[in-house]
Amino acid sequence: MVLANVLFYFFALLAVGSAALMITRKNIVHAAVFLVTTLLATAGIFLQLEAEFLFVVQILVYAGGIMVLFVFVIMLVNLDIEVRAVRFNGQWKVAGALAFVLAMQVLTALWLGRKTFHLPAPPTALAARNTEAVADALFSHFMLAFEVASILLLVAMIGAVVMGKRRAE
Amino acid sequence: MLTRRNVIIMLMSIELILNAVNINLVAFSRLYGSVDGQVFAIFVIADAAAEAAVGLGIILAFFRNRKTIHADEMQLLKW
Amino acid sequence: MHGFFQSVSAIIWPVLCAVVIVLLLPLLAGYIVLVERKVMAHMQARLGPMRVGPHGLLQPIADALKLVLKEDVIPMNADRMIFWFAPVISVTVALVAYSALPIGPAFQIADLNVGLLFIVAVSSLGIYGVVLGGWSSNSHYSLLGAMRSAAQLVSYEVAAGLALVSVLLLAGSLSMKEIVQAQLDQGVWFVFYVPFGFFIYLVASIAETNRAPFDLPEADSEIVAGYMTEYSGFRWALYFLAEYANVIIVAGLATTLFFGGWLRPLTRYHDHFPGTSIELLDVVPTLLMIALAVYCFRLAPKQPVRVQKRVMAAAGVKCLLFAAILLAALFGSDAVRQGVHGAFWFLVKVGAYIYCFMWFRFSFPRYRFDQLMRLSWQFLIPLALVNVIGVGVAIVLRERLGWNPFMSLVPTTLATLGCAAWLTAEESDFSEEAESSATVGGAEATANRGGE
Asked: The complex's ipTM?
């Protein structure tokens, strides 16, 4: 139990810290690297929540696929101009106000619902085989959503290929 | 996300938001003992992948044309 | 407190396994390099490293010392943080993948429910080491090599993953232990069920580890060293270590999935020695080791130099020691016997697979980059998809219609073979056309330039 708590705080701090670092970096490649560490920390949290299939899917797809795509595009666009550019902070007042309002909302909600923090222990009847359970749900209840998602991915793939092609000029 | 003018960082921030949603979904799926939350999280990941791919394709095409990735310089539609 | 002690004692064996792997791996990688150089030399009718230590046995240690003592050069205008971080990513990712790999039934750091997918996922993180290393070097060759290498890795990862899915369908589980158990239950190594899946995985794994004939992004005569160009000394040693660790991972994965992991060949042959419970075939490892020892002792007097004689004799003694351990394990408990013999068979199979890697390196010419990409996307991936569908059909035939397992895989094999033949025919038409148009275009361009 102690080990589980320690690990959870480690992953949580890593996730929040990396996210905070990510949005404050001037260098885009550094920001991308910090986003990758955020995603890996989130994967660790998934593993602790006994979602093993999602843990591997997060690493395989999100950290190992989507972020590689980001890093590729960053390098193709070659953004050393950005590093020397002046930070554009004209809208920080609006952003700050919005963030403050959202934070106040969240804190109010937490304060009003403070009694519900004594959540019951989760039922231990989660299927022993997480992957099989996810597959069962995916292919029975969520079959339509699954097919729609696959068509979405097909369309996105075609769109990305078309957008990325060099037009013969 | 609102204060940066680099569109790639905007896209990365969107990924961060979707990730936070995922954590929420999985945590609550564990609380209620059903895998529906995890299935939804899988769909969110698939959707994020599609959106990132198309978004980056658009950025690449725009960069080849205009040689900039700053949002305030992408004002082709204004007159 | 009781819970704390329990959790501590539960992690002692895995931590011990992890420490052994991290300590042994650099040494092992160094000696695999030596074996590769020796094998390359003997295939090219020469001797290989012979100077440093008898028969070149101390060569890896000399290399390691040199790399550690070399001056650390960082290119001007290189991004220092990422330049430092990139090789660390490569090595860390390669070592993390070992946590789900079983080297025998007892030696596994963590038997994850999703072990197979975990290794594939963690291997896909290795792309960052390559891309960030190439980019942070602030050099054209590095960036180009890194982009090519990353594109190659991504393409072949898809093919490898699909080839593994066909094994997954047959085994019914993602856990590595259960896949080996399924091969034990079904009595056949999966390579005999899905030979095409194995072939696709073989080719894809060679490309995944950037080895010849797919080593264009890092070949010396092509692009200096690709993403590793600006790295020297210990940083380069880290990249090198990561590459060979990846090779062993990929070999271990292929062994577990296709060759029965730690199972002895002919697992169903249970004849015993009369009066004991020791199976006949379990004596084979001991006999192999004794044969190797006899070979060493016969070679020893023929060595020209005295120290080489002694080293050969010491090698013979070492083989006898292993034979004694294997024999002693036969009389131990079941767990000890399975552990020791399982580890032996696993290492033998991994060694054979790595030898095949080396063999291919010295036999085949290099693929050009566009040929490489075409091979993956237009040949291996469609083939792997047909293979997966075929295995699905085979399982339905086996379970619903009650066909014999081998018979149910005949349609799969035929379909995959047909698809491969069709793709090869189509590809040769296409590539002929592409090359003829390229040469025509090139000739026209040179004629134009000459005319001006």
From this structure: 0.84
